[in-house]
Design brief:
This protein folds into 2 domains: about 5-180 and about 325-345, Porin chaperone SurA, peptide-binding domain (Triger factor/SurA peptide-binding fold), CATH 1.10.4030.10; about 200-305, Chitinase A, domain 3 (Roll), CATH 3.10.50. The protein is about 45% helix and about 15% strand. The chain has 10 helices and 11 strands. A 4-stranded antiparallel beta sheet has the order 7-6-9-8, sandwiched between helices. The chain has a 3-stranded antiparallel beta sheet with strand order 4-3-11. The chain is elongated.
């Protein structure tokens, strides 16, 4: 049996409808999700395969268990089952990160209780329904409830309530405060012009004919003839696809498996003869055959962007996302420090 689990963690994610999925066993909980880590609903092993629930830490007297820790590690590294567990070299760091996460989550929950925060009845009802929808049958649902909360529906409700309280506090203290306005993004853009500068770029597809090393004159001549023939065919192409199919058929370079497409390349990373030819071409044109040492190459120019600063309109959306992520991580770290300052935490 397998069932879906939504990871717990430090900062809220947007998938509110799924926030009632299970993560911890030490106290009533179903976790809130986090934007610091993508929320993808990980599939966990059957409860019988999880650790027995031995203590790994105490947070103001509340016990966190090895089962909580295992769930968190699996959330961080969801491919553990495929790879027969976490790679040995990653285990210490993975365990520390997961332990820090479940401790933080417990601190957030306790802070929500201290503030006397509550969950509206309708929100609880929706969360319970969302949790139930994960399971294909009543039998599967009952098996998980039995394994997680010994069949106790009231305890299941408490797990869900705990998750929603964590979600609620993180929304007010982290997510809502991390929003970035266009005005803030524009101010950052103006204050950091170097971050938005780009070198001269050429977007090209290439076809390269590479003669064997130390080939005899006949082999070299044969390569030259092949290159000239391919160049004629390339000149006759009229589209990205036509040139790309030719590259896949004849090119010897590493990009032939991708229609010869090298995407956008900075000018200083291309051979000078290629740059010189590209600067004299228009997008859509195919170059003449160019000899680079013993090798022959030609290319299709798909785009040429002069060096300069990318306009704000083109970077705005990504910049706002990036700034919000940075702000979220800082707010989360600040909250973590604040909550730990007065907490008694014992790692067992």
């Amino acid at each position: 049996m397998k069932y879906q689990v939504l990871i717990g963690g430090a900062v809220l994610a947007s998938a509110l409808a799924c926030s009632a999925q299970m993560v911890a066993s030490h106290a009533p909980t179903l976790t809130a999700s986090t934007p610091a880590r993508e929320t993808t609903g990980q599939t966990l092993a059957a409860p019988a395969q999880l650790p027995p629930g031995n203590p790994v830490a105490r947070v103001n007297g509340s016990v966190l268990t090895d089962r909580d820790l295992a769930r968190e590690i699996q959330a961080i590294f969801p491919y553990a089952q495929v790879h027969n567990g976490v790679p040995k070299s990653m285990e210490p760091e993975m365990r520390k990160g997961a332990l820090d996460m479940i401790i933080f989550e417990e601190l957030v929950y306790q802070e929500a209780l201290r503030r006397k925060m509550t969950v509206p009845p309708e929100r609880m009802k929706r969360a319970e329904a969302d949790f139930r929808k994960q399971f294909a049958s009543e039998q599967e649902y009952n098996a998980v409830v039995q394994a997680e909360v010994h069949g106790s529906r009231p305890l299941l409700r408490e797990k869900i309530r705990r998750s929603l309280l964590i979600e609620q506090l993180l929304k007010s203290d982290v997510n809502d405060r991390a929003n970035v306005s266009e005005l803030e993004a524009r101010a950052y853009y103006k204050a950091n012009p170097k971050k938005f500068y780009h070198a001269e770029l050429f977007t090209i597809q290439t076809i390269s004919i590479l003669p064997p090393e130390n080939g005899n004159p006949d082999v070299v001549k044969e390569a030259r003839n092949k290159a000239e023939d391919v160049a004629k065919q390339a000149k006759a192409t009229n589209s990205y696809k036509e040139f790309g199919l030719l590259a896949e058929k004849y090119s010897d370079d590493d990009w032939h498996v991708n229609m010869g497409d090298r995407k956008a390349v900075e000018a200083d990373k291309l051979p000078p003869p290629v740059v010189k030819a590209a600067r004299a071409m228009k997008p859509g044109q195919v170059s003449d055959l160019i000899q680079l040492g013993p090798d022959y190459t030609l290319f299709r120019l798909n785009a040429h962007v002069a060096a300069g600063t990318t306009p704000f309109a083109e970077v705005k959306a990504k910049l706002m996302v990036d700034l919000k992520k940075e702000k979220t991580e800082k707010l989360r770290a600040d909250l973590d420090k604040k909550l730990r300052r007065t907490a008694k935490i014992e790692v067992l």
